[in-house]
Amino acid sequence: MKIRIFRIIILLFIVVTAFYLNGGLSRLLKSPTVQAFGDLIVDFHIVGPIFNLTNIKPGDSETRLIDVTNDGSVSRIIAVRGTRTGGIGLDPKIETVLNVTIKDGSTTLYGPKSMTDFFTDSLTPDGIPLNTIDAGGHKTYNFLVEFPTSANN
């Protein structure tokens, strides 16, 4: 009986130690989709690339909402940069037909422009400026990628 209790205590100690060394309770409570950029808290609502388009065909579209909160004491300029994570070659044709639109509510801040233009426009160190969020403010941006029905397969 004493050996069984001793084994349980050792096993419990190992589990607690492994849990602590892997971030403990704070890691469990932290959302993997939220990142901080200085005073800006950004919730992408998804882990990994914002868009991962597979089997997309003419007429399809995908929308992603991104929440940005300014936890600072001064207004912050919000900008976006795109990073190409897939595709084959230097000029994959799908990027030339997909359209990107970014909105703040019903106000269009960017686009509709081709995905190629989006990547090119966002190459600058500051990215594509969207707008400014006042101190303590919050905005939800709507990112839309469309495959126009007028495009050929």
What's the quick description here?
The chain has helices at about 1-20, 25-30, 95, 115-120, and strands at about 35, 40-45, 60-70, 75-80, 100-105, 105-115, 130-135, 140-145. The protein is an alpha+beta fold and about 150 residues long.
Describe the structure.
By secondary structure, the chain is an alpha+beta fold. The protein is 24% helix and 34% strand. The strands form two sheets. The chain has a six-stranded antiparallel beta sheet. The protein is extended. The model is unreliable at 25-30 (pLDDT under 50).
Write the topology of this structure.
Blueprint: H1 2-21, H2 24-29, E1 34-37, E2 40-43, E3 61-70, E4 76-80, H3 94-97, E5 99-104, E6 107-114, H4 115-121, E7 128-133, E8 138-146
Antiparallel strand pairs: 1-2, 2-3, 3-8, 4-7, 5-6, 5-8
